[in-house]
Write a structure and sequence with these properties.
Layout (H helix, E strand, L loop, with lengths): L5 H6 L7 E4 L3 E5 L7 E7 L14 H17 L6 E4 L3 H4 L8 E5 L9
Antiparallel strand pairs: 1-2, 2-3, 3-5, 4-5
The structure holds adenosine monophosphate.
Length: about 110
């Protein structure tokens, strides 16, 4: 059995997080090391490791994560725009092997990322 990720432990309330949204399939909580005034992670409750592990059966769930991202951005007042980022694998900068969408906003973000 693979070890539980820190995000599964947050979903199961084994460790605390500042939760901003929850529904049957997803949880959204503030990033512990924010890179912008608003930095929230949206995660599926089902522990899919990364984008590289998706198949067609996951399409609805992944779409849901982005709808939640939009709802959270609205809820947190990001009317002037925001960014959704999904890091994938070591070269993509992924450090937690539980799929997550970063929502970043509250300041002008630069492009391209490093
Ligand atoms: P990534 O590098 O794309 O895998 O993003 C992982 C994110 O999880 C980083 O931005 C971390 O700051 C964040 N993170 C790690 N541990 C926690 C935690 N316990 N609560 C909230 N965010 C966390």
């Amino acid at each position: 059995m693979t070890e539980k990720t820190i995000f599964s432990r947050i979903i199961e309330r084994e460790i605390p997080a500042e939760i901003v949204h929850e529904d049957d399939d997803s949880l959204a909580f503030r990033d512990v090391n924010p890179q912008a005034p608003v930095h929230v992670l949206v995660v599926p409750k089902r522990p899919i490791p990364s984008l590289a592990d998706l198949d067609a059966a996951d399409a609805e769930l992944v779409g849901h994560l982005f709808v939640v991202a939009r709802q959270v951005a609205e809820q947190l007042g990001l009317a002037n725009g925001w960014r959704a980022v999904v890091n994938c694998g070591p070269d993509g900068g992924q450090s937690v092997d539980h799929l997550h969408v970063h929502i970043l906003g509250g300041r002008k973000l630069s492009w391209p990322p490093g």
